[in-house]
Amino acid sequence: MKTIHVAPSLLSADKSKLLDEILEVERFGATYLHWDVMDGIFVPNVSYKVEDVKKYAKVHHMVNDVHIMVSDPEIEAQLFIKAGADLLTFHIEAVKSHEEASKLIDEIHKMGAKAGLSIKPMTSAESIFDLLPKLDLVLVMSVEPGFGGQKFMPMAVDKIKALRKEIDSKGYNCLIEVDGGINEETGKLCKEAGVDILVAGSYIFGHDKKERIDSLK
Fold first, then answer.
1. Which of 10, 34, 39, 184 has the most neighbouring CB atoms within 10 Å?
2. pLDDT tens digits, residue range 128-181?
3. pLDDT band for position 123 (50/70/90)?
4. Are 108 and 100 in contact (CB under 8 A)?
5. Are the beta carbons of 38 and 66 closer than 8 angstroms?
6. Which letter does DSSP use for residue 43 in this model?
7. Cβ contacts of 113 within 8 Å, gap of 6 or more
8. Closest to 50 measured CA to CA, from 41, 42, 38
């Protein structure tokens, strides 16, 4: 059976006891730790900063999965990789061209991190097929990025299916991640479509973490 990885999103964690929250999800079987970075420009919210990742990146053994929703991904990518990001994901909508995206992917790899590319709900999966050979991960946003606790958009399932087919048929070494409105029901739909990593925030934090992580796996 295919291994499904769970990536708890710290956007929904209790910031007053962040260390405890991180250690708990690791203890209960999470293998990725999802950091949502927002600059208040690319998306209408502000969240974790470089200092936060640097402070907590080495207190656990999960993959530091850093998703930057920012208007200047080139600069931010460097800062977050230096702070401890193992996987750095930026948005195709935040760069001017695919050539620029390709260069940034190369830079991320040169700095020793894995490179991910995210697509917003209105961006098609097919539009980034040309970049898949260079990528370690594609993040399908199943909600509009910027806020936690939103309702899952079913169109994400078709995108995951399209990506899975393209990745498998070409033999690419690229994972598929989905983020937004993930719970036991929507997680099952995404798993059946071929996803590798489920990001979940409000479904996990504030509840029985072990039970919720187990239900996603």
1. 34
2. 999 999 999 999 999 988 766 679 999 999 999 999 999 999 999 999 999 999
3. very high
4. no
5. no
6. S
7. 81, 85, 86, 87, 88
8. 38
58-86: pLDDT as tens digits: 999 999 999 999 989 999 999 999 999 99
Contact by Cβ (8 Å): 39, 80: no
Query: What is the set of active-site residues?
Result: 36, 179
What one-letter code names the amino acid at 207?
A: H
CA distance 140 to 50: 23
**Contact indicator for 179, 152 with CB cutoff of 8 Å:** no
Residue type, 9: S
Q: At what angle do helices 209-216 and 184-193 cross, to 10 degrees?
A: 30
Which uninterrupted H or E stretch holds 55? helix 50-56
- What does the chain come to in residues? 217
Q: Which two tokens stand for residue 123?
A: 């961006």
Tokens of 112: 């020793």
Cα 107 to Cα 126: distance, rounded to the nearest angstrom: 24
Question: Buried (b) or exposed (e) across 70-107, using 16+ Cβ within 10 A?
Answer: beebeebbbebbebbbbbbbbbbebbeeeeebeebbeb
Residue written as token pair 């708890």: 8
Mean pLDDT over each residue of the chain, to the nearest integer:
95
**DSSP string covering 152-202:** PPTHHHHHHHHHHHHHHHHT---EEEEESS--HHHHHHHHHHT-SEEEEST
| Residue showing tokens 């850093």 | 66
